[in-house]
Write a structure and sequence with these properties.
This protein has helices at about 25-35, 75-85, 100-105, 110-125, 145, 165-175, 185-195, 200-205, 260-265, 290-295, and strands at about 15-20, 40-45, 60, 95-100, 130-140, 155-160, 220-230, 235-245, 250. It is an alpha/beta fold. The protein has 2 domains: about 25-160; about 165-265, no CATH class. Strands 3-2-4-5-1-6-7-8-9 form a 9-stranded mixed β-sheet.
């Protein structure tokens, strides 16, 4: 499944690229614009480097200087984006906003930004040719949980960028290697809580022993697909995979990442059967004559209950034998006659 080169816009018209302080998704966004098979409308509000993307099929709207209170010719970004979407040609298009958080800051209201994005995704869905809305978001963001709800869009492709140092940290501190070196359930049970604590990833990158900056050449991509996973079959479940991304190879399996090769080169030693008779101060082994003598010893109750073999001591019928004590009263009189009632 590739959400960059072969997206199924009819089933997946909504894509979220999530960045963090520790790892940016800007490289993936650039590759999406350069390798997309369709035209793209880019609304650039944050990263000026996207304006220099070498792609002839990208129409860029420079909104970097369109800041309320700082630009005398400020134009409401919602009106500009809606106008561009409504007047776009009737063909397959990608509508890219970088970034949603900057858009919300310009609008000045999270509820108004959410209402605008709801209107925008409805326009994208209603286009005659399948199109896609691509939103770049920076976590933590108050808009992220709203955009991931099924109320906003039943189908969703959500990518989260992580630094490769996170997997090396899990292998060192939690002794958990990525699949297939570890079971899927065990890995995700540890990876998800640690990755959601973003301060831990930031410490791995910017801490006293950190790398000092996120890796722009390689990164981990957590891909969450809700709805159609690309095979044409609609699902009610959520597929979650972990892939590697590099500047030269694009998306690929984790073992192909240069920074993770030491993890996948580890061989898991097969457990050997431990011999309990080793490293003891006395001999626990039997000689051949001792084993023969041991085999000739008749075991008690060995043939008991086997109808095909005669029993040496047949079991008699059950009976209770009682020897009365001297203080026992065994007469047939009333046992309560001694009571003064």
């Amino acid at each position: 499944m590739s959400f960059i080169r072969e997206p199924r816009r009819a089933q997946q018209p909504f894509l979220v690229l999530q960045s963090s302080v520790a790892q940016s998704s800007l490289g993936i966004l650039r590759q999406l614009l350069e390798d997309s098979s369709s035209h793209s409308l880019l609304f650039c509000l944050l990263h000026p480097s996207l304006l220099s993307v070498n792609a002839s099929r990208v129409e860029a709207f420079d909104l970097l200087d369109n800041v309320p209170g700082y630009n005398d010719n400020y134009e409401e970004p919602r009106h500009l984006i809606l106008s561009a979407v409504k007047t776009a040609p009737d063909e397959t298009l990608d509508f890219v906003i970088d970034s949603v958080d900057t858009l919300a800051s310009d609008i000045g209201s999270i509820p108004q930004t959410y209402e605008f994005l709801c209107e925008l995704v409805s326009l994208v869905r209603s286009r005659p040719n399948p199109s896609r809305l691509v939103l770049h978001i920076l976590s933590p963001s108050p808009l992220l949980p709203l955009l991931c709800q099924t109320r906003f869009s039943p189908s969703l492709t959500h990518t989260i960028s992580h630094p490769p140092a996170l997997l090396r940290h899990l292998a060192t501190e939690y002794l958990t290697l990525p699949p297939p070196l570890s079971p899927e359930a065990k890995f995700w049970g540890i990876f998800l809580p640690v990755s959601e604590r973003m301060h831990e990833s930031e410490r791995l990158i910017f801490g006293s022993e950190g790398e000092g900056a996120g890796d722009d050449d390689e990164m981990l991509i957590e891909v969450i697909v809700r709805g159609d996973g690309g095979d044409g079959l609609r699902r009610r479940c959520v597929d979650r995979t972990l892939q590697g991304w590099s500047l030269t190879r694009g998306l690929g399996p984790l073992p192909d990442m240069v920074s993770l090769r030491p993890l996948f080169s580890r061989t898991v030693a097969e457990p050997s059967a431990a011999d309990p008779t080793q490293n003891v101060s006395f001999n626990l082994n039997l000689t051949a004559s001792q084993q023969k003598s041991r085999a000739q010893v008749p075991l008690p109750y060995m043939h008991e209950g086997d109808p095909g073999k005669p029993q040496k001591n047949p079991v008699a019928s059950a009976a209770i034998f009682y020897d009365p004590d001297s203080a026992d009263d065994l007469d047939d009189d009333d046992p309560d006659e001694d009571l003064d009632i």
